[in-house]
Amino acid sequence: MNARLLAGAALTALTIGTALSAGSASAQGVSGDAVKIGVLNDRSGLYTDLGGEGSAVAARMAAEEFGGKILGKPIQVITADHQNKPDIGSNIARQWIDQDGVDVIVDVPNSGVALAVQEVTRDKKKIFLMEGPATSRLTGDACSPTGFHWAYDTRALAVGTGRAMVKQGGSSWYFLTADYAFGHQLEADTAAEVKKAGGQVMGAVRHPLNTSDFSSFLLQAQSSGAKIVALANAGGDTITSIKQASEFGLTQSGQQKLAGLLLFISDVHALGLSVAQDLVLTTGFYWDMDDEKRAWSKKFFDKFGKMPTMVQAGSYSAVRHYLKAIEAAGTDDGPTVAAKMKEMPVNDMFAKNGKILANGRMVHDMYLARVKKPSESKGPWDYYQILATIPGNEAFATVEESGCKLAK
Amino acid sequence: MSVPTQGAATVAVQAGGSSLARIVGLVALAVLLVAPYALYPVFLMKVLCFALFACAFNLLIGFGGLLSFGHAAFFGSAAYVTAHTVKVWGLSPELGILLGTVAAAGMGVLFGSIAIRRQGIYFSMITLALSQMVYFLALQLPFTHGEDGIQAVPRGVLLGVIDLNQPFAMYYFVLVVFLFGYAVIWRTVHSPFGQVLKAIRENEPRAISLGYRTDRYKLMAFTLSAALAGMAGGTKAIVFQLATLTDVQWQMSGEVVLMTLLGGMGTLSGPVVGAALVVALENYLAATNLPVPVVIGAIFVACVLLFRRGIAGEILARFGGGGR
Amino acid sequence: MMGTIFGIPPQALFGQLLLGLINGSFYALLSLGLAVIFGMLNVINFAHGALYMMGAFVSWLLLTQLGVGYWWALLIAPIIVGLFGIALEKTLLSRLYKLDHLYGLLLTFGCALMIEGGFRHFYGVSGQPYPIPEALRGGQNLGFMFLPNYRGWVVVASLIVCLSTWLAIEKTKLGAYLRAATENPVLVQAFGINVPVMVSLTYAFGVALAGLAGVLAAPIYQVSPLMGSNLIIVVFAVVVIGGMGSILGAVLTGYGLGLLEGLTKVFYPEASNIVVFVIMAVVLMIKPAGLFGRER
Predict the structure, then answer these.
(1) Could you tell me what percent of chain B has a pLDDT over 90?
(2) Whether C120 and B122 lie within 8 Å, measured CB to CB
(3) Chain A contact probe: residue of B148, B251, B269 with most A CBs at under 10 A
(4) Domain-located, residue C214
(5) Domain tally for chain C?
(6) Taking 80 as the threshold, does the pLDDT of residue A85 lie above it?
(7) Transmembrane segments in this chain: where (chain B) (predicted)?
(8) How much is the average pLDDT of C26-53?
(9) In which element (H, E) is residue A127 found?
(10) How confident is residue A16, by pLDDT bands cut at 50, 70 and 90?
(11) Domain containing residue C57
(12) Is A3–B148 a contact, with Cβ atoms under 8 angstroms apart?
């Protein structure tokens, strides 16, 4: 009988013991000791190259400009991998804020995860600086008083690439869409632009995130007969679909043309110029545009070994602006800093006279670019020819158009 | 499945009735009541949800001898139903969880009647395949929102009075749900129904020859297990305010198998211990650089090779006055 | 345009059927391996998908680390996977034969998690590109679709492997033992044939088939740690539908379901992922032992 009691007690103790140690292990670190910047992104999957550790490197570069300290307190940059899962992302965000005293969350590519994190940061009144995610809903119906959408969004991509392709004679469109928040929004925004410009949408097929075989989707696109097969996907999915399109001779016949709606310089680097040449794309940043960008990118390259994507460059710009706002506001309290950020213009190597709208949209110029042919490129990372500048107020929606209910 | 824990199971069942075990139970309850003052409540709520899930799963394997490799289907579907009804239909959380449970029970009837046509390994493979079908449905049906999942589910106001946005209110609600589920399982195991179930596990042909319609018993056990797994899933959706594909993936089915195996199949307390350990371990590992699946897989292999009775089973067998 | 068949342009119909046949080739190779292993060991090898992935990764590592090309990889990778299988069987699986078969399933499940987790830890989850071998680049315009040469090769290679495996099992002495073991393991054991070496070799052969499928898949699906995990569950369903009783049944069901999936993609693409599972449920209702199986 005693033995039985012992057994039960041991069990209980075991359970409590593990629970205690697990709980207390992460209960350390009081908010206020430091300004903690949490870079939360995909560090192992298909979006690793466009953000990943590079975004953390960029955030640290911004912190270094302030000497690693702000208002006398150290700036810390921590990182985590959300694995492209909304539940993992929002759990990390919640735990970071509740237990680890994280003050600001940065990057979060994958619109689905970003939407989930936005719920947490809105609830906890913490700043959320989004460079990786694309969906315009983040400053639309899902906007937050403390959320900032920095580098680009689906609407800017649609205005840039969508209009340009219709002008080049792409009158009928078929979409190959990543089946989640980002793909849906990019497809919707682009279809609207295409129709506005007089084009026609023939249909769409949706593929799961991180697809390895696009053959049956490409076959559907092929038999649609549309002139433009538009890729409303990103990162690894874009790379794979472009490669397999060339395997299946999609563009060989000359009747169909691919349009990568969201291409990062890391994608072009992975594809190689011989496959990617002549693709038209919209970007918020290209390293080789002026001396300031070149100088910063050179520094980034020395640390990271790759040229920055617009997401990584945007992370630097956003964190820098955030830290400046803390300095100006004298506090790291979320709503106060957010208000300050919206008051101040954004002027750095990333954006000139960028302004932040009430819904958190950072408005800056976007660029329409064409991928160079191998013969035009002078060497690695010399990839883009800038065709046009899209003024910020044309690329991004106004607060009224966005549908954000915060707007006063 | 001839569970080597049957000795331990008997002990555990007997212990459940003894006064000493009652003391242990009261201590555990007291600990659970004060725990949120010491620990991160979200972590505790996660443990409780998974503990209930594992207990529900254990009802099937530990007492019915049926290894379902697709219990995530019930857990995840209920999470989706609860999230949808609470967020879109604006139902109260308790109604949402109830509907989630009912949905899971309905699926349990459907899947159960297909799966119990085969036994042993085939049963496991069929449940796995059916749950994968649910996964693909969740990926494509419009109301589940694919990769995004159902987000921003309001926690709402319980019974119209208790605001679940308060972490402590939420925690005690989850605790009540867990205790309710645990009590249902306790009652079932100790009822004549539970006895028949165990008879089927030990020797199905004999149970049939005794005149029991074993298929009907198995289906009832399957349905009850699915319903309780659903209750756990629905509660989790309210706690974390979202329902995603993670909840219906086969990895989730594997996880609950591990929790039960590690804690001790066929014991009432084992799955709770297993769930607490696995959740704590994953929490701990997340902060380190160790690859979580490798560690989980290694524990799996170790459990199968070295201690098939699980932690609770081993302890009960060693201190509980001899196993069989 | 050649007109339409049931309102579907023939390009789409034949194209998707052909892609279905390619998928079916992988189902067939994997379910063949599963059936062979199950026949001899009575173990459902949950690690089969992980070993398929391993085959792809070995060939990728051979190429990127050692410069060994596709054709050699086609030979070397299955051997490496087979040797790994022998190690797995000798050290872990062999301890469980006296226990309930479900423990074999649980053990191999744990192994699958470890193998996949390990590769994932080192290589991330995004696919590593594996180039199509020089000789098989380009494609044929079949009129109704553009068929990349490599995909055609996969169908041919899988057919050859499945057929020769089947013939080997039908015509050779080893095959006779295997066949007997698949039909009636108890009797074969009674004849004293179930020597440990044969068990190990059977397991090695079964997983080597998975490894071979992995090499074939590498240029098509890219090399990713997760490539096996979702595939294996479909293959489980294939095996349940076909029934474990017959080697030929496993192969035929594999190809058949691949084609059926392709057909579904034409008429109702949304259902293409679940059609195999629906078929499984229907077959279980009508013939619980599977199409080619017998109640034991």
Answers:
(1) 59
(2) no
(3) B148
(4) yes
(5) 1
(6) yes
(7) 20-40, 47-75, 95-114, 121-138, 169-189, 219-244, 256-281, 288-307
(8) 91
(9) strand A127-130
(10) low
(11) 14-286
(12) no
Tell me the three state secondary structure of residue A259. Answer: strand
Best residue in A215, A233, A251, A274 for a mutation probing chain C (most C CBs within 10 Å): A215
pLDDT digits (tens, 9 = 90+) for B129-152: 999 999 999 988 889 888 889 998
Residue C109, domain CATH: 1.10.3470
The beta-carbon neighbor of B129 closest among C107, C114, C277 is C277
Contact B1 C106 (CB under 8 A): no
C1 inside domain: no
pLDDT tens sequence across C90-137: 999 988 888 888 899 999 999 999 999 999 888 887 778 888 898 988
The domain that holds B24 is classified in CATH as 1.10.3470
Contact call for residues C116 and C53 (beta carbons, < 8 A): yes
Q: How close, in Å, is residue A237 to chain C by CA atoms?
A: 9
Domains of chain B: total: 1
Distance, in Å, from the CA atom of A274 to the CA atom of A350, rounded to the nearest integer, reads 29
Give per-residue pLDDT as tens, C238-258: 988 988 767 888 899 999 999
Query: Closest Cα of chain A to C250: distance in Å?
Result: 24
The length of chain B in residues reads 324
Structure confidence at residue C87 (pLDDT): 96
What angle do the packed helices B41-64 and B250-263 form, to 10 degrees? Answer: 80
C251 inside domain: yes
Instruction: Give me the residue from C126, C145, C150 closest to A219, CB to CB.
Output: C145
What is the CB neighbour count within 10 angstroms for residue C99?
15
CB contact under 8 A, C222 and A205: no
pTM of the predicted structure, to 2 decimals: 0.87
Phi, psi for B107 (deg, rounded to 5) = -65, -35
The SS3 assignment for B151 reads coil
Q: How many CA atoms lie within 13 A of A336 on its CB side?
A: 11
Per-window interface: B 135-164 vs C, CB < 8 A: 136-137, 139-140
Cβ partners under 8 Å of residue B310, min gap 6: B5, B260, B261, B262, B263, B264, B265, B267, B270, B274, B303
User: Are B27 and A12 an interchain contact pair (Cβ–Cβ within 8 Å)?
Assistant: yes
Mutate to test the interface with A, among C142, C146, C272 (most CBs of A within 10 A): C146
Each residue's pLDDT tens digit, A330-373:
899 999 999 999 999 999 999 999 999 999 999 999 999 999 99
CB < 8 Å to C222, chain A: 212, 240
Chain C residue with minimum CA distance to B295: C114
Alpha-carbon torsion, ordered A8, A13, A16, A18, to 10 deg: -110
For residue B163, give its domain range. 6-32+40-319
